[in-house]
Amino acid sequence: MNDKELIMLAHEACKKSYAPYSGFHVGAALLAADGSVFSGCNIENASYGATNCAERTAIFKAVSEGIRNFSKIAVVASDGSTAYPCGICLQVMNEFMPEAEILLEEDGEIKSYQLKELLPKGFIL
Ligand code: THU
Questions:
Q1: Is 39 in the pocket of ligand 1 (CB under 6 A)?
Q2: Cβ atoms of residues 27 and 40 within 8 Å
Q3: Is the distance from CB of 76 to CB of 83 less than 8 angstroms?
Q4: DSSP 3-state assignment of 91?
Q5: Is any atom of ligand 1 closer than 6 Å to the C-beta of 81?
Q6: Of the residues 14, 15, 24, 105, which should be mutated to test ligand 1's pocket, given the most ligand atoms within 8 Å of the CB?
């Protein structure tokens, strides 16, 4: 699974986004160490705080299936903007994939970040 393929799977997941309130559709594709891929989309709610981001949908799907080792996650938005993960998603990534790589689209190109760049001092217990 190369970076371009993972980004394309994130775009596929984005098509399933449920975002009637913001109109901002996000997709994620999470690559596990065993080569399996978990996709996720944002799922909004009339009670806005109940919304789940695309990244957390993908991570929670994987963890609930017993998969906890990940190598990278691709995150895209349908409008072509760069979908930088929110603080809550970064914190969830810090829990399960602190060494992971995050693939984003910037100006139509794939840009790779280390989680530590986006969350230099994540909370740990
Ligand atoms: N969103 C994500 O899916 N991932 C992020 O990291 C940031 C925000 C979603 C949540 C909400 O449905 C919409 O984008 C607008 O905030």
A1: no
A2: yes
A3: yes
A4: helix
A5: no
A6: 24
Give dist(CA 13, CA 28) in Å, integer.
Answer: 6
Ligand 1 atom closest to 19 (CA): 12
Q: Are 44 and 73 in contact (CB under 8 A)?
A: no
Confirm if 111 and 81 have CB atoms less than 8 A apart. Answer: no
Ranges of residues in the chain whose predicted pLDDT is under 70 = none
Atom of ligand 1 nearest to the CA of 57: 3
Cβ distance 106 to 54 under 8 Å? Answer: no
Beta strand segments in the chain, E: 26-32, 37-41, 70-77, 101-106, 109-114
Q: Atom 1 in ligand 1: which residue has the minimum CA distance?
A: 53
Rounded percentage of the chain residues whose pLDDT exceeds 70:
100
Q: Please, are residues 85 and 72 in contact by the beta-carbon 8 Å criterion?
A: no
Catalytic (active-site) positions: 55
What confidence tens digit (pLDDT) does each residue in 10-45 have? 999 999 999 999 999 999 999 999 999 999 999 999
